[in-house]
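re: that chain from earlier
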Amino acid sequence: MLSNSVNTNVGAMVALQNLNATNTELSQAQSRINTGKKVATAKDNGAIWAIAQTQRGTSMALNAVRDSLDRGRSTIDVAVAAGESVSDLLIQMKEKALAASDTTLDSTSRSALNEDFKALRDQIAKAVSNADFNGTNLIKTGATALAAIANADGSSKLTVAAEVMALGGSIVTVAAAGSIGTSTLAAAMITTVNTSITNANAALARLGTKSKAFDLHTAFIGKLQDSLDAGVGNLVDADLAKESAKLQALQTKQQLGIQALSIANSSTQSLLSLFQ
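^ sequence. v structure.
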């Protein structure tokens, strides 16, 4: 019978198989505790690892989306700040034009008002030309629409139309050489400036709405990224309390397996007594 064979120790073979299985489980539990993950590599669970890796890629891509949105929002905010300055300057220009339309003014006073008016006019040009962020200016002549990445694959964009507030344009209709040197010019300028103020305020309202949209979408992207990261965690993270309890059980099982193997290996020694 094999049970009394010195060539084949079935008991030791079974004990060794059980001990090897325990050691494999123990190694797995230790790996999960060390990494904090139940699926750390494709070898652990190929399907789950692939799903988690895809979601990690999406989450990382959303970092680029947030960067693009942040740059876009900053560009809009710079344009809004410059536009508000333009609106304020136009209001001051209206005051100068109204004062200069008074036919009772002497030439000295009219000349002083005209110089103030031209200084304000030129300041509009400076404000518009300096409204750059990261090389983009939404309110200067020749400005083009801004398009920020809105999703992880770049297929969706948040766009902002240019609002050109340069002198002599469709929004600020005051000419680059506009003046209030005479009461007639001043009277005509009042209408021009009023139109410019109305147009500039409407443009600022549009830019403000777009800036708010960027804020809302940035907040959404942050929440989406958090949800993706939590989902990946649910797929691959280990339950450390469970793994700790399992580790202790496996360590005990390992010690018992070693004892069982030792007993099985010593069983053949009893056969020597039959020959004494």
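The chain has a mean pLDDT of 89.
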